[in-house]
Amino acid sequence: MKEQISLPCEVVQDILPLYVEGDVNPGTKELVEKHLEECGSCRDFLQELKNEEPVLDHIPEHLPEPDTFKKWLRRFRVGAIAGLIVLILAAVGIGVVSYKAGTVAEKETISTKDVVRVLKKAGLSLKASPSPVIDPSECVLGDVQPKIYGIDEEGLGQLYIYEFNSTLARRNILESIKSMEDDPFTSSQIPSVAYAAKNMVIVAVLNISEENWQSDYDKIAPMTQALGKTIFYDLNQGEKWVLYGEGKDWEAKLVVSTYEEWWTGEDGYKKFKFYMTKTPLVNYKGNSEEIKDISYSFEYLNGKSTLTEEDYHQGNFDEEQTGFYRGSPLYWGIYSGTTHTVDKNETGKFSVQWNGEEESFELTLREP
């Protein structure tokens, strides 16, 4: 008779996220369940995974420590443990299905649990907040009340997560918010920024005082940037590319960020919008202090934007551009979009006039 293999706790805890989603085959499931019968620690971890979406009405007085990114990495022990999993599963002739945050983006409708899981994988330490900055009953959107999570230990940031039953329902609600007075977050005069992802609305609320604005914002800014970046890439399947060109005196680039939103309309047909942000950047190869008079333009996708001396800024040409990670107030309708997509290989054009000089050149896709 073949001896039953016993899995160590580290391996079981690596497999449990897949087990919860039903992404393990029968052989693996049997081994995991055998271990769970004998191990209280792994049963507790399983319960923690299943309870990633707590309800405010049932929050215990003493919340467990948040599952930080550091703990997550420690559990997975990428090198040694991953290798051990491969050896064990190969020995018993079984395997597991890959579990990626990105698979969430392929669904038309996602859940609060999906959002929390993806954000945790990105390193955000989310836990249900027992002390909302704004009472959830005062910021209902349509008939949806938010679930509220803290994103830092000092209580400087909270996420208000709204789960609509469809992307169409979410779009209809946001389109009904026409002004600042209709936006419960802006009207409360508490700093906030909103994001849309399929059938979800995610509002980051900053609990920052005027006296400590700069120091508190510096603490929370990395988390809000990670939030926007994760929503853009992992929930909306966003894409970024750069068009670049240079001449004798200038170099220029256009940072383009895009994503498509699909939903089923009231007529039952699939619909979509294409969202795009373009960030123009320029760099003068000479002494920028010599520039007295300047105007320049970018042409791309049948559109032209002209900028003047007031818009000219030198010094951020090589920095990562994060504007497309940002959301907006709810009353701006989150984003505006078009009904056509673009070819990233299409070229652009840059033209500049300064100090009586002129220069123009083509912008082409820059390989990463």
UniProtKB/TrEMBL annotation:
Transmembrane stretches, start-end: 78-99
Pfam families: DUF2275 (PF10039), zf-HC2 (PF13490)
GO molecular function, one term: zinc ion binding
Residue ranges occupied by any Putative zinc-finger domain in the UniProt entry: 9-43
Gene3D superfamilies for the chain: Anti-sigma factor, zinc-finger domain
Listed InterPro entries: Anti_sigma_zinc_sf, DUF2275, Znf_put
UniProt entry keywords in alphabetical sequence: Membrane, Metal-binding, Transmembrane, Transmembrane helix, Zinc, Zinc-finger
Domain DUF2275: 70-294
Domain of life the protein comes from: Bacteria
Family: Belongs to the zinc-associated anti-sigma factor (ZAS) superfamily. Anti-sigma-W factor family.
Full protein name: Anti-sigma-W factor RsiW
